[in-house]
Predict the 3D structure of the following.
Amino acid sequence: MSKVWNLEEIEYLKEQIGVNKITTIAKTMERSYHSVIVKMNRLGISNTKLHTGLITIGELAKLVKVDRNTVKWWVDKHGLPCTKKVTRKSKGFYFIDPSDFWKWAEENKNRVQFSNIDSKVLLPEPDWVQEERLKENDVVKKKAYKAWTTKEDQFLLQLRSKGLTFTEIGVKMNRSSISVARRMKRIL
């Protein structure tokens, strides 16, 4: 015969989801693993990862548009607050509170490229983030690689034959002097 759930047990279940393994919760409540799973489904809290209100390292990496290992590096070496929680039977995830991320990002502005983060995608987004985006758009931190065309190669050779320096050619072609020098080596 099944044991009826009381309000105290339901509250305990809601509090412990995402904090402890379901097997641990079941043992503490003296219920079967299956019984706890069924109750979670009935309460609409079956997906324990979503239930926490936090985001995983992988999800944060996608939102910030960096590699997952970069976020892991921020956690391990640069103090980004993170908690490990076990969901379902044994799967563990590292979770980050969006508020904690923004506090950390404010102190580590040099590590995060705010112009890559879409607006209002990671709430609550502080006001200073928009200012950082605008600053970065003025002074671009990185320049995407732009492939050389055949016409540009010909124009490069033409300018070089006129005796222009790599810096002068770079200004005329909207490229860095290093890029121009390297391309020149490859052509010749």
User: Anything to note?
Assistant: The mean pLDDT is 83. Residues 7-46 form one domain. Residues 150-161 form the longest helix (12 residues). The chain has three domains: 7-46, 51-138, 150-187.
